[in-house]
Amino acid sequence: MGRPRQWTDKEILDVARTCFLEQGSSVSTVVIAERLNMSHGALFKRFGTKEELMIRALLRPQSHQWMDSLGDGPDERPIREQLVEIAAKMSAFFELLTPAITTLRSAGISLDSMGDRHTVPRPVHGHQVMAGWFRQAQDQGRIRRVDENALAMIFVGGLRSRSFLRHITNNEYPASSIEEHARVLVDTLWAGMAPENER
After folding, report:
1. Same domain, yes or no, for 52 and 69?
2. How many other CB atoms are there within 10 angstroms of residue 175's CB atom?
3. Which of 38, 167, 31 lies closest to 100, judged by CA?
4. Which H or E run includes 99?
5. Alpha carbon of 79 to those of 108, 130, 144, 155: distances in Å?
6. Are 70 and 133 in contact (CB under 8 A)?
7. Of 110, 124, 12, 6, whose CA–CA distance to 64 is shortest?
8. What is the pTM of this model?
9. Lowest mean pLDDT among 61-65, 114-118, 153-157
10. Tens-digit pLDDT profile for residues 141-173
11. HSE-up of 182 (CA within 13 Å, CB side)?
């Protein structure tokens, strides 16, 4: 008889994520272990608790990499072009995040219960990073001087609301693609943020 397959953490988390999203937060870890052809005990030895498994499966650190690229502020390309690119990346991120957050909340897991993982909650950090990017664009004279926190709230909120609507309508509404939504959102906001020489 051959040795049992050795699963990497990533492979286990991929399967667990699929189970949680397909069957909800109440899915038994026995089901997850069976899908992996792994013993229930071995699964818990790797991840400790169901809550830990759920958090690690649904909130992958690498899924937040879009934030890292914003820290240096705008590059040399036109601001509008950069914003469309940022919006498309963020929108794709929110499409993955929204069902994950819904599943975590249904399990009673809140941002507060994850407070020891991040000094600043991820949603707050994301807003701050985007506001900082807008502030740098203003300091460079490349967009109008407006309240960067309000601008970030509108920008990020316009992307989050699309993913939320698609989640609750089973991906039926809005029908526009991520790229199309990103372009339309930026075009709409550009009318209010463009510098005087680009109006």
Report:
1. no
2. 10
3. 167
4. helix 79-106
5. 40, 13, 12, 14
6. yes
7. 124
8. 0.82
9. 114-118
10. 999 999 999 999 999 999 999 999 998 898 888
11. 18
Chain centroid to CA 103: how far?
14
Short-list 145, 120, 117, CA closest to 59: 117
- Interatomic CA distance for residues 123 and 98, integer angstroms: 12
Residue 110 burial by Cβ neighbours in a 10 Å radius (0-12, 13-18, 19+): exposed
Q: Is 84 helix (H, G, I), strand (E, B) or coil?
A: helix
Structure tokens at 50: 């169901």
Asked whether residue 2 carries a pLDDT value surpassing 60, the answer given is no
Residue bearing tokens 């249904």: 106
Of 92, 83, 94, 67, nearest to 184 (Cα)? 83
For residue 37, give its domain range. Answer: 9-57
Q: Terminus-to-terminus CA distance in the chain, angstroms?
A: 73
The percent helix, strand, coil of the chain (3-state, each to 5) is 70, 0, 30
Query: Are both 115 and 194 inside the same structural domain?
Result: yes
Q: What is the DSSP-derived secondary structure letter of residue 155?
A: H
120 three-state secondary structure: coil
| CATH number for the domain that contains residue 152 | 1.10.357.10
Same domain, 76 and 30: no
The answer to the question of residue 93 being in a domain is yes
